[in-house]
What does this fold into?
Amino acid sequence: MKRKLYLKTFGCQMNEYDSEKIEQLLEGENNLSLTQSADEADLIVLNTCSIREKAEVKVYSDLGRYRKLKEVNPNLRIAVGGCVASQEGENIIKQSPFVDLVFGPQTLHRLPEMLKQRELQGIPQIDISFPEIEKFDKLPALKNNGPSASVSIMEGCSKYCSFCVVPYTRGEEISRPLDDVIEEIIRLTLSGVKEITLLGQNVNAYRGLRSDGKIADFAMLLEYVASIEEVKRIRFTTSHPNEMTDGLIDCFKQIDKLSKFLHLPIQSGSDRVLSAMKRNYTALEYKSIIRKLKKSCPQITLSSDFIIGFPNETDEEFAQTKQILQEINFDYSFSFLYSARPGTPASFIKDNISKEVKEARLKEFQTLNNQQGKNYTNQMIGTKQRILIDSLSSFEKGYMKGKTDNNRVVEIKYDENLFNQMVDVEIKGFLGKNLMGEVLKSED
Ligand code: SAH
Ligand code: F3S
It folds into this structure.
């Protein structure tokens, strides 16, 4: 009988990607198959996130529960990976001695060996090193679940924003060689994938080695990916404003397959706050990038990340953030309460703003942003959109659905031939909360 793996993932798309790899690795090497219930697991793996305090607290409360399971079943193994593991290292074992393995985002490929050593040595194993690009060479290719797939093109971040743990937990920026990325994408297309999401903490900081020894930047990578006939849509996330080169901006005009959507974190509309965050751009510089983008591609939709309540953010500075939200007219975006992360420069700033004030600001901000998102949805009625049909409608019989460039779900009448096809539709109205479309043209 196959042994059971319970795998819980917190945080960003990079973690989700890593978790898929963990699942496949442990299935192949350790004959473990996924279970939805921690109670029946032989191995529990937590792929953790430490970007904000809340995510971290959840990990420790889960561990408390698993300790009880281990009391009943001493053969249960518990592994903690991801960014909390990377940050806390052996502290995790000190605090929770029942944990068997601690591994980082760059050492997950070593899990089978660590499990083996745990049994041989009878003591917890810790490996949170950053062995550069080794991970990608050692991991199985992702199995295909439908017409969309993600491909990690770079890891880590070298920007060191003053509030952020990522450079410490995931290491500095490191890019995969161009050929490796292209080969993985071609392999995915052979199993029917049509939409590729390029993943990385800062995808547009991509500097991949080419086989001729030169370096390919992100714009060049996009051109290569677009040249693969079977790839019908390209998405990417996340980008940094300082890496929005003219070449990349031009891609939105030149590459038809590139989703006309960009998630570009701005964090704040105040220059004082941006500088304290060490973002290395001003609000005006950010707006100038947007102006160029809109010139290159007038139909582009934009979304962003915002941190509300950075230490000592004044009413006026918060007002500037609201203003830029409205001025750029961002689509549905992410906004977070500032969370002091241990060891980061911002965590040493003495803060004079109360939690109540910050929470009220966040609420006000999110209300504004939700309204903007709704307005976008309403304005899509009557427009032509491209969607990739990937599943049946989740609530309406006789319908199937796919997503637009800006991630709206559109339902269309069921037609067997349209499964896994890129389809042009005209948006006619709503079906439940989703949009409803009529097919204008399908791929082939
Ligand atoms: N690479 C991306 C960000 C990755 S982290 C970039 O270009 O900025 C995702 C988001 O989490 C960030 O954009 C930021 O808005 C938020 N975040 C990071 N650290 C945070 C903290 N300490 N408190 C609150 N939000 C934070
Ligand atoms: Fe974090 Fe800033 Fe990098 S938000 S991931 S340090 S760009």
